[in-house]
């Protein structure tokens, strides 16, 4: 199964529609998005493969998805830790932080140090609204994610990539290729440069929204909140 | 696996703690509770067993859980319909209704008529805060749920049952025994009168909340939002 891509502009309009017409709150959408991220982590990297998950969160909603995912990962028995160098201002992010504090999930001050003991990194730095340029400390983080042997799962887009044009021609991110990507609601155009395992999450779209944005209807299996693209619901390529 | 029960008063205090100390919003908690209900439906009654699910919603948060569950059931490929004779006033319930309207999930005016074509009924009328007495139209609904051959899954408690003392001695509910019950966050004392399949949902408790209320830590398997009580994580009795 493959799926049409949605532009950055349309993805923003779709999110707005979900809230203004669809009746969803950001709390709900982020909960379901983050839950789908946690299921993708479990699928590619079950706890038996190593429980130390370093979740790197950016200042916007992509980072919020990472915070939600980390909470679910803690409930699954992983030991997530959060690197959140530029905190967003929304009150929701503060509540998501509280939820993690209450599960004793640590917020770590040093990415380089945390990476040493990580079994997997969740890249929840930037999503479909990223327009560059990268500002500190993110160029350094991207460079480390480029060169590490620790597997990386990116949320919505590999951070540093242009949503339309893919990896930058040079500098941090030019050689960044996460092992796994989970697109939220629909793939972004940059997925054509992506060569790893690709999941879709965000099982809350309606027929009218799919039609409005010219998207295909993904076939999620069972009660799963994710579907692997390039593989059908029965797991066949 | 069995699990200690929580009183109605403690269940209310626990919900308050989750929001006031835990940083959760009602939107988030209801999303996860309703999601767990939908997973229990799928477990006991997969779509191949019949897709017409009649969700009966009461005026409070139990009804809200039912509305969320119905949305997820629609996403799983079921044909849910909603009977919602006394709508609650919270703005959230209106938004949950909008989400269902946008999925073309019908709100039906006649329970008796809807029951004729139902393959399963979700009883989301009353939860842990029920203190009786039943007011119309619910006595009639309970009587029909008592005598129907359509299987019933109750959310948090069989509606009409006293949360402490179980089924009423006489009148509507005296012979009400749903096939399935999903307890949310923790079983209520009335479960000792329940003889069907019993699930637990609400995978968001922290160690400190479990300790504060003297609850056991349930072992949810994998990424599941439900665990069957009386059966361990590997499915053994």
Helical content band of chain A: 25-40%
In CATH, the topology of chain A is named Rossmann fold
Distance between the termini of chain A: 8 Å
Number of strands of chain A: 7
Helix segment count of chain A?
Answer: 7
**How much β-strand is present in the residues of chain A?**
5-15%
Biggest sheet features of chain A: 7 strands, mixed
pLDDT averaged over residues of chain A: 95
Please report the first level of CATH classification, the CATH class of chain A.
Alpha Beta
Describe the strand arrangement of the main beta sheet of chain A, using strand numbers. 2-1-3-4-5-6-7
CATH superfamily of chain A: YjeF N-terminal domain
* Chain pair forming the biggest interface: A-B, 36 and 36 residues
Oligomerization category of the chains in this entry: homodimer
Query: From N to C, what is the helix and strand string of chain A?
Result: HHEHEHHEHEEEHE
Domain unit count of chain A: 1
Short structural description:
Chains A, B: It is found in: Cytoplasm; Mitochondrion. 2 copies of one chain form a homodimer. Chain A has 237 residues and is of the alpha/beta class.
């Amino acid at each position: 199964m493959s799926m049409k891509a949605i532009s950055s502009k349309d993805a923003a309009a779709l999110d707005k529609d979900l809230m203004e017409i669809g009746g969803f709150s950001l709390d709900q959408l982020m909960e379901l998005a983050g839950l789908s991220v946690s299921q993708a982590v479990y699928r590619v990297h079950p706890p038996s493969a190593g429980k130390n998950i370093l979740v790197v969160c950016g200042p916007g909603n992509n980072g919020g998805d990472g915070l939600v995912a980390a909470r679910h990962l803690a409930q699954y028995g992983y030991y997530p830790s959060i690197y959140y160098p530029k905190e967003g201002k929304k009150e929701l992010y503060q509540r998501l932080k509280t939820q993690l504090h209450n599960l004793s999930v640590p917020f770590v001050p040093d990415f380089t140090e945390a990476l040493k003991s990580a079994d997997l990194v969740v890249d929840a730095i930037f999503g479909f609204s990223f327009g560059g340029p990268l500002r500190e400390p993110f160029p350094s983080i991207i460079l480390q994610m480029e060169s590490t042997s620790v597997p990386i799962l990116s949320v919505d887009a590999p951070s540093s990539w242009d949503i339309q044009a893919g990896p930058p021609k040079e500098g941090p991110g030019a050689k960044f290729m996460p092992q796994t990507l989970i697109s939220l609601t629909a793939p972004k155009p940059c997925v054509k440069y992506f060569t790893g395992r690709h999941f879709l999450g965000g099982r809350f779209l309606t027929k009218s929204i799919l039609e409005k944005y010219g998207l295909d209807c993904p076939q999620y299996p069972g009660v799963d909140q994710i579907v692997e693209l390039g593989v059908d619901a029965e797991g066949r390529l």
